[in-house]
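Q: what sequence does this backbone want?
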């Protein structure tokens, strides 16, 4: 089991642009178990942070917001780390 929390600090700018920072924190809440846990019952942890950029377009009458986030993982504990690129589109009906 894991606890995962996402966070964003962003500013909506003129011309429907968005700029900010986004990240997440992940904490494993139950230790590793089973035959694959040959090194012990570890709990993993990692934190990520990076830039967020976005733009809202009106498609027909529907506002659609496209965002891109690039997050750098750091402070890993009992797990590997890497970076993540997220591309999203959001709209409300």
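A:
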């Amino acid at each position: 089991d894991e606890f995962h929390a996402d966070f964003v600090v962003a500013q909506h700018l003129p011309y429907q642009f968005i700029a900010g920072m986004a990240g997440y924190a992940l904490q494993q809440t139950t230790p590793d178990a089973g035959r694959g846990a040959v090194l012990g019952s570890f709990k993993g942890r990692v934190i990520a942070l990076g830039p967020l950029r976005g733009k809202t377009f009106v498609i027909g009458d529907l506002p659609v917001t496209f965002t891109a986030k690039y997050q750098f993982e750091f402070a890993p504990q009992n797990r590997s780390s890497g970076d993540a690129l997220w591309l999203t589109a959001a709209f409300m009906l």
